[in-house]
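Hi V.,

You were right to ask for the full record rather than a summary. Here it is.
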Amino acid sequence: MKKFIQENWFKIGLLVIFVISIVGAFYWFQLRPARIRNECSQYLREPIKASSSGRLPEQTSGEVIYKKCLLEYGLEK
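Predicted structure:
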């Protein structure tokens, strides 16, 4: 095994870098946005639960709050 690593250290290093890159890209483009959208949805539900009527105040709509939350986390432009 030690001889194999000594002879193929460059290929193994490239493979490790490739795998780390794929995992990082998956996290950044799949898991991170899903988590942020979930947190923004939870943030949107909190004022609804807190209000007595179960609705948002008239001056703000749920879509505006949700988009503002996504903007803060950098998902929307």
